[in-house]
Structures are given as C-alpha cells and as structure tokens.
Amino acid sequence: MTSNALSITPKQNKETALFAVPVLKRIQQESIEEYNEMQQAFNLMGWGGIPDTLKIEIHEDVKYLVEELKGRFSSCDPFVQRRRNSIHYWVSCYQDGICTLEAAIKALKVKAL
C-alpha cells in the first residue's frame, strides 16, 4: 500500500512565494527589534546576565513593564504588583546564589488555568 500524501500536497506558486517574502522579512525585523529592546530592559534592570531560560519565563512580564514605563497604560492592579514583587524576589535570590535556577523558574512559572 502506498501513500498518496505526496501527490495531494499543494504546490507553491510564485505569487504566494513573492507575497510571503516581504511578510517574513517584516516579522524577522520586528523580532530583532523586540529582542534588542528586551535585552536592553533586562540590562537596565541588572538582569542581563541571568540565563535565557529564566528570561523566557519572565519575558512577558518585563515586556509589559516596559510598555507601562513608555506610558501606554497604567496598572494599579494589586495582582500585577504582587507578580512583579515575586519576579524581583526570585531573580534576586537566583543572582545572590540563594536558590537554584530551577527553583527560580519553578517559582515564577505561570500555571495554566
């Protein structure tokens, strides 16, 4: 028995390819800009040297902190403040050698609903 999967795979035409190239370049450029902005934010907070695995865990939090500092919105929510305090605490504990990287990541991991 042979598979017909290859025979039914749609072929990419030139128009689709030409459309995709500028979109992919734009996505790549925006990703580079966001990465550089996030690295700058981590460096300004004194967190430039923490491992990427920890940065990934708190990326969204730092991203929205930067957005708030830019004046795009303001959060007075006590849960947001509590999360920020938790991030500062665990990153400081990791940097000071009080806890392991795994412990900090586990403490900061956002649990799915």
From TrEMBL:
<protein>
    <submittedName>
        <fullName>Uncharacterized protein</fullName>
    </submittedName>
</protein>
